[in-house]
Amino acid sequence: MRLAVGSVVVGLIVLALKGAAWWITGSAALYSDALETVVNVVTAIVAVWSLRVASRPADHDHPYGHDKAEFFSAVVEAVLIVVAAFSILHHVWLNLKVGDSLHTPFVGMAVNLVATVLNAAWAWFLMQQGRRARSPALIADAKHLGTDVITSTGILIGLLLVVATGILWLDSALAVATALYILWAGIQMLRQSLSGLMDAAPDDETLLRIRRTVGAHAEGALEAHDLRTRQAGRLTFLQFHLVVPGSMTVEEAHEICDRIEAALKAEMEGLVVTIHVEPEQKAKHTGVIVL
Predict the structure, then answer these.
(1) Could you tell me the sign of the dihedral formed by the alpha carbons of 188, 56, 39, 108, in that order?
(2) H helices of the chain, where?
(3) In sequence order, what are the residues at sequence separation of 6 or more whose Cβ sits closer than 8 angstroms to the Cβ of residue 217?
(4) 57/112 Cα distance (integer angstroms)
(5) Helices (DSSP H) in 55-68: which residue ranges?
(6) What percent of the chain is modeled with pLDDT above 70?
(7) Neighbours of 63 (CB within 10 A)
(8) Which of 129, 138, 190, 266 is surrounded by the most beta carbons within 10 Å?
């Protein structure tokens, strides 16, 4: 929660700096950079809300918890990025109608550079913390800030070229390139966020780790099949069927389940496991075969 609040504070500082850089220069490219920072601030506020909701424990109406709220934050951020891209293109169109102009470019670029360095440092810190906490909202915020740093750097390099050559229309061209880049980034982020909301399975490497762990700690059982997984924020839900000999007691089967569950949770943080025990005639001879 403190990280999300920190993103709001950093975003407001960066927005003030980039807004000042645009105001000083009148640059369309720096306008696009400032507008993207507006998105950062709004989505940071949304992230505060989503993290507060996601931290609530499971209740009667939400027995699986509230962790999916983080995906809503990522979806909102992606949509706002797309909207910002079209707004930048509209601003460029208006700029071209009245003619390009650029005032005191070096002062504006210096102010923008300070904001970019601050953004880069915060993006790196957020990514480290987001991966550690397995938080989609923080990771999405860090990725977008990283995109912002890349576009800001490109804009500053481009503006140096504008000053060096005196070709003013390059400023508008930079703004268009920025809009197209963040539009692509927003669409990619939206696709990933919607996958989370649609209960997409984890990546193949994670699934392989689960299968290997189950196979290595299910001694006494015959097979495990019908593995299903879904992610909800920082939690991964796993369920599967475990086939045991028909002569095995409930207590013995329960001990195997406890052993598998302990191994899985030691291997993967934030894992919620449900195991359905079945007699040997239910074997399918597919899935994770326990030898």
Answers:
(1) negative
(2) 2-25, 28-54, 69-98, 105-133, 136-165, 169-197, 204-217, 250-267
(3) 259, 260, 263
(4) 42
(5) none
(6) 85
(7) 7
(8) 138
User: What's the CATH superfamily of 2-197?
Assistant: Cation efflux protein transmembrane domain (1.20.1510.10)
- Confidence band (pLDDT; 50, 70, 90) for 16? very high
Q: How sure is the predictor about 70, in pLDDT bands with cuts at 50, 70 and 90?
A: low
CATH number of 204-289: 3.30.70.1350
Q: pLDDT per residue over 274-289, tens digit each?
A: 999 999 888 887 666 6
Q: Is residue 15 within 8 Å of 96, Cβ to Cβ?
A: no
What's the pLDDT score for residue 111? 93
Phi, psi of 99 (to 5 degrees): 100, 140
In the chain, domain spans: 2-197, 204-289
Q: How far is CA 170 from the centre of its chain?
A: 32
Give just the sign of the alpha carbon dihedral 60, 71, 195, 270.
negative
| Phi, psi of 79, deg, nearest 5 | -65, -40
Q: Look up the pTM and report it.
A: 0.57
Q: Which two tokens stand for residue 22?
A: 């645009």
CA 110 to chain centre: 30
The sheet with strand 271-279 has its strands ordered as: 271-279, 235-244, 223-232, 288-289
Q: Which range, 35-39, 103-107, 234-238, has the best average confidence (pLDDT)?
A: 103-107
- End-to-end Cα, the chain, rounded Å: 46
Structure tokens at 87: 């707004």
Centroid of chain to Cα 20: 29
Q: What pLDDT, on the 0 to 100 scale, is given for residue 196? A: 64
Tell me if 84 sits within 8 A of 174, measured CB to CB: no
